[in-house]
Amino acid sequence: MYDKEIIMNQKRLEPYTKRLLLSIILPLIFLSIGLFGYTIYRNYEHNVVTIQEKEKSVSDSIAQQINHIESQTMHHVHQSDFLYFSNSSDLHKASHYGIGFSSNLFRDLTNHAMFRGILLYNYKIERYYLYKSDINPGAKKSSELDNQKLLQQLTPTTNGLQKRYEIVQLDDTSYLALIVTQRYGSLAILISPTQNEIFQSFANVEKDKFTATYSADDVSNISNHPIVTKVNDFPIYLVYQSPNLFDMVHFDLFQIIIFVLIIGLFVFSIVMFLYLQHLLISPLNYLSKSFGQISAGDYHYRITRKSDIYEIDQFYTGFNQMLDDIRDAENESHRQQMDAAQAKLQYLQLQIRPHFYLNCLKNINSLAELQDYKKIQTLVISLSDYFRYNFQDVKNFVTVREELEAVQSYVDLCRCLYNEIELEFDIESEVLNAKCLPLSILTFTENAIKHGAELKDLIIKVTTRLEVDTDGDVYVVSEVANTGTIDEETLALLNDPSENHPIYRKNGVGIANVRYRMWLIYGDHYQLQFENRDGFVISRLRFPIHIDSMQK
Asked: Has UniProt tagged this entry with the keyword Ion transport (predicted)?
């Protein structure tokens, strides 16, 4: 009864789809916006053309004055005073001609409103002459000029006469500079286009919207809604900037009526959209995010939301049921894999033990044949302690301390059987509580004694330490070294774990099983290597540490 009541209260998707199709108001909105936008565009376009025409008249006036300044400047440059100044390396002569040339030129250019000053420079004598309305002319040392970059711009690059326009800065003010260079001398005519009469008239009307910008690059994108005009080939741009488009649009009554209708239709559309958003679009977005969670591997995720639409709510329920089925199947598969891996690991551990026990029994039998009963008694007592370590319940890990104690017990046993064995430990204290696989370090100690038993003086060195790689991961590194050498062919076989699957090898059962048990626990994150080094055979085992064991 309860379920039927819920289904009756839930809404169907089909009626809302029909209502959406019946919303013909949207085409009307688009049509109204189109008409309104067209009228705004025509109004805006007209104003842009008007501003461009004004900018063109300002640009022509500025270019004309610059050309007049250039013409008068070059007239003076071709006279003898500038020539003598530019080619003179004598301070007295250069100052004489420089002052005369600058005074005459300054007098002729003062009638131009855009003319702001003259900077004359001779890099050979390291003197410059600055002529402005507020600065008295006279030779000054180059080092006294605050803007050394300006002097670098003025330094001639060739001996011949050159002319160019550049943007310079003097006393925190930017100027357009007509630069003329010849041999040692340079001349810079400082020009300020903003002092043009037509420019100032237009700028006073438009206030802060109309400016002049110095740039060698295109400045069309310096701000929003710029109207840019370049002054001929000079690095000057006239820029009209408007904070928004509507500053350049003037509305009439027809446009205002259309605007009010658009606002009304727009508000109605927003209300309808929000309603459909809550009813239909929001659940679909929620579903999309849920699929993203699952794609990221979060199989514990479940949909907790309820929907007013029957079809979507049914989909939520089926979605959660599918995730439950996937989780159950994954748990069952994982359990089966863990059982199989644990069975393999226990089999390999048990396989190592008979290999070692048979060696011990053979050694005791040899002592019995020699009737050395005292040594047999000592051997049996020591062997009982060692068996206590080996006959404990099968488990995955022991501490490095326990493994090294087993190594010591085994060497004590072997000292009763062979010649003198010298055992040396080099152990970092921090590694003693780290976890390792049982019979791992011991296996290599056993092999070292087995293959070095014929040596008169057998030395075994066990080194265990911690090692941190470049990623910050901590590893246990254990090396067992014994006197002797291994031929290269055998060494190559020992270092090739793919030679045969270790579980089926008849020889080297201990090493093969250690390698395979390491692979079961650590995968590809362990290393087992053999080498000859300085008269010793080195067995090197490297495997990741367990952080919890270090905390203990």
From this structure: no
How distant is the alpha carbon of residue 119 from its chain centre? 50
Nearest Cα to Cα of residue 112 among 171, 163, 58, 66: 66
Nearest to 513 by CA among 304, 358, 346, 271: 346
- Closest residue by Cα to residue 427 from 466, 467, 389: 466
Give CA angle at 388 (385, 391), nearest 5°: 150
Take residue 186 and report the two structure tokens written for it: 């340079």
Interatomic CA distance for residues 227 and 237, integer angstroms: 10
Burial class (CB in 10 A: 0-12, 13-18, 19+), 269: middle
CATH number, domain 352-544: 3.30.565.10
Q: What whole-number distance in Å separates Cα of residue 299 and Cα of residue 330?
A: 10
Residue 399 burial class via C-beta count within 10 angstroms: exposed 0-12, middle 13-18, buried 19 and up: middle
- If phi over 0 gives left and psi between -120 and 50 gives alpha, with beta otherwise, what is residue 207? left
Domain boundaries, the chain: 1-249, 255-346, 352-544
Query: Is the distance from CB of 203 to CB of 194 less than 8 angstroms?
Result: yes
Q: How far apart are CA 382 and CA 413, in angstroms?
A: 6
Cut 0.90: pTM above it: no
Residue 75 corresponds to which tokens in the numbers above? 């007239």
Number of H helices, E strands in the chain: 16, 16
Within 162-223, residue ranges assigned H as helices are 197-206
Residue given tokens 């002797």 in the structure block:
484
CB 19 within 8 A of CB 280: no
CA-based nearest residue to 188, from 129, 139, 142, 247: 129
